[in-house]
Design brief:
Strand content: 15-25%
Low-confidence stretches: 1-6, 21-37, 271-287, 306-313, 556-562
CATH topology of the domain at 36-266: Rossmann fold
Radius of gyration: 26 Å
Strand order of the largest sheet: 6-7-8-3-9-10
Number of strands: 20
């Protein structure tokens, strides 16, 4: 009898388990059917205003509506400052300070985002919504290693091997070194790929990507595009991709929307036109042009200092520059191209005097470049950093940011720590530089947190140009700008080259653009300049594998990348 009672209990337990399994299966099926009928994200009649002062407000979004279905990829295109990033922040429930948001309906998978608490929105962003922000370096904690920051957003029991796998899946060649590094020890492209790995590690159902490939070279862009297409097909992922590059969106998304004047509309491809119309005014260099910058056998190793981490084997020395030699003529435009982490930004920082190489010689107009430089020499050599968020003081207005170099170099009378820009001559000079980068005088009283990524980039360019330098170093200075603004900035630089003999060194990953604007192309790979050729002959003469890989990955035919 006892055996029969045990069998009966087991039978009843089995029936309960089957009933529970059927109920769960029915619920999952009903949920999938409802989600298939309803969109993953629905935004209806969203308006957003920013309060700049007590009496001044600016409207960014006006009745914006947007719908994204399950597994659908939507691209959002628009000029700099049109409100693309503000739209993403409103969806996440993270509007900027001073923002006044009004929305009729904001839903994610039948959940009302407007009535959620802060804790519920945080859990949703961690598990169901992946986000790739425009400035990834500033989204990473500078006090913690990359491994611990990825494990923060990963599912429970996420092992070390899986962390390394997520880093290698986004194209990072040495995941062990990347995982044990701090953000400031990595390049901008490496930080961008870490942000993509963080967004995809929890396998979300919606991905919000704000300029996901702006800091990546063409090879890494191709890899990330293939990864996003693969993840989308595997997990039925819905995506909202924000970019200023129509070619990239056409290769990745199903439909493209345009955000202009706060209103979303369908994208209409523009007529084909030449990338640069100002090439006729390019200044022709002669064989007698004198050298302006000379670099010989430059070496720099990161992590070479002694410390307890090196003794324990936790830090390995990483050679950033290995015997770099480069010569730039007066009035020449040189492009240093290469993959992310190849040493481009490190070379720019060494020329500018921010980083000190262990060995090598640099000279500028015959004067040796050492770390301690005269004030007049620093005014002639200006650097535009890749990270504009960290380069601009968030407490200063645009007028103070542009007036500060004039105060330091004593070119015009200014007041450095107040909103007073000094004389009318100083204010006129600031307005002229702002107009040259397509910004009006309305931006004078704004601060960097009140600007978009492209507007911050233009302020950084204006700050470098206000001193009228002889040598301008541009470290990915055009990546945050749409094509129209890129054209206007490049036209301005070409006019300055023709008028005052401005010399430019572009540190970029966009080989296609550099072939059109540069006189000389130098390719960096693993801290070395592997080859250098004239831009007009570079496609024929390039023979190094790094150069051939960049040429092969140029995004000239978007339809072939789908």
């Amino acid at each position: 009898m006892r055996g029969k009672n045990i069998g009966c209990n087991e039978f009843l337990t089995l029936r309960r388990q089957k009933a529970s399994y059927r109920a769960r299966t029915r619920a999952i099926f009903e949920g999938d059917r409802i989600c298939a009928m309803n969109p993953v994200l629905s935004v209806h009649d969203l308006s957003l205003d920013y309060r700049l002062s007590k009496d001044k407000r600016v409207q960014v979004l006006q009745g914006t509506s947007l719908t994204i279905g399950r597994g659908e990829a939507v691209g959002l295109l628009g000029p700099s400052g049109c409100g693309k990033t503000s739209l993403v922040r409103c969806i996440l429930g993270m509007p900027m300070s001073g923002a006044d948001m009004r929305c009729a309906a904001l839903q994610f998978e039948d959940r009302n985002l407007l009535t959620m608490t802060a804790r519920e929105r945080h859990a949703l962003r961690r598990n169901r919504i992946g986000v790739i922000f425009q400035d990834p370096r500033n989204r990473l904690s500078p006090f913690r290693r990359i491994r611990s920051q990825i494990e923060d957003v990963s599912p429970p029991r996420y092992k070390r091997i899986e962390t390394l796998h997520s880093l290698s899946s986004v194209g990072l060649a040495d995941p062990e070194r990347i995982a044990s590094s701090y953000p400031h020890e990595l390049s901008g492209g490496e930080c961008q790929r870490i942000a993509i790995a963080q967004a995809l590690v929890s396998k979300p159902s919606l991905l919000l990507a704000d300029e996901p490939s702006s800091a990546l070279d063409t090879v890494a862009q191709r890899h990330i595009l293939d990864l996003l297409i693969q993840v989308r097909a595997q997990y039925d992922l819905a995506m909202l991709v924000i970019s200023h590059d129509p070619a990239l969106l056409q290769a990745l998304v199903d439909r493209i929307l345009v955000l202009r004047n706060g209103v979303v509309a369908d994208y209409v491809p523009p007529r084909a036109k030449s990338f640069l119309t100002h090439m006729a005014i390019r200044k022709e260099l002669t064989e007698t042009a004198r050298p302006l910058l000379e670099i010989s056998n430059l070496h720099l190793v990161h992590g070479s200092r002694r410390g307890w981490q090196n003794w324990l084997g936790r830090r390995r020395p990483h050679p950033a520059l290995q015997g770099v030699s480069l010569g730039v003529l007066h009035g020449e435009c040189v492009a240093v191209v290469g993959a992310s982490g190849s040493g481009k930004s490190t070379l720019a920082r060494c020329i500018a005097g921010i980083d000190l190489p262990q060995s090598g010689v640099m000279s500028f107009s015959g004067t040796p470049l050492v770390q301690t430089r005269p004030l007049a020499l620093r005014a002639r050599l200006q650097l535009i950093l890749q990270d504009t968020v960290g380069a601009l003081n968030p407490r200063l207005t645009v007028a103070q940011i542009l007036g500060e170099p004039l105060h330091i170099h004593r070119q015009y009378p200014t007041n450095r720590h107040t909103s007073d820009t000094g004389s009318s001559e100083t204010l006129q000079r600031i307005k002229q530089v702002l107009a040259a980068v397509s910004l009006t005088s309305e931006y004078l009283e704004r601060r960097p947190p009140q600007l978009s990524g492209g507007e911050r980039q233009r302020v950084a360019i204006a700050r470098a140009l206000i001193l009228q330098p002889s040598l301008l170093l541009l470290d990915e200075a055009l990546t945050g700008l749409d094509h129209e603004l890129q054209h206007s900035i490049l036209e301005l630089l070409e006019i300055l080259r023709a008028q005052i003999g401005l010399t430019c060194i572009h540190f970029s990953h966009d080989l296609g653009q550099m072939l059109l604007i540069a006189d000389q192309i130098a390719v960096m790979d693993e801290g070395r300049i592997v080859e250098s050729h004239p831009a007009a002959e570079f496609p024929k003469l390039a023979c190094h594998p790094a150069s051939l890989q960049l040429l092969d990955a140029m995004l000239t035919k978007p339809e072939e990348r789908r």
